[in-house]
Write a structure and sequence with these properties.
The chain has a single domain (14-68), classed as Winged helix-like DNA-binding domain superfamily/Winged helix DNA-binding domain (Arc Repressor Mutant, subunit A). Helices cover 57% and strands 0% of the residues. It has helices at residues 14-24, 29-36, 40-54, 59-68. The radius of gyration is 12 Å and the shape is globular.
């Protein structure tokens, strides 16, 4: 049904969604790691997992995918 653009099912964990949200706001891996108090490597691992689950090649494509499915929202600041 095209009318409902909210695809509530997400193959991603809440942490992965959170990381995508940070990426959508233009944060680097280092900035994300600092904000979430995790290591840069952990952020990279999450991103690798996100790309694999969504079958996309880069972070931008992952963000676009998440936005289209309504998993994340771009807030007007």
């Amino acid at each position: 049904d095209e009318g409902s653009n909210k695809d509530s099912y997400s193959p991603l964990s809440s942490r992965e969604i959170e990381i995508l949200d940070y990426i959508a706001r233009g944060n680097s891996n280092k900035e994300i790691a600092k904000s979430l108090k995790i290591s840069d490597q952990t952020v990279k691992n999450h991103i690798t997992s996100i790309l694999k689950k969504l079958a996309v090649n880069d972070r931008t494509a992952a963000v676009v995918h998440a936005l289209r499915h309504g998993w994340i929202k771009i807030q007007d600041t």
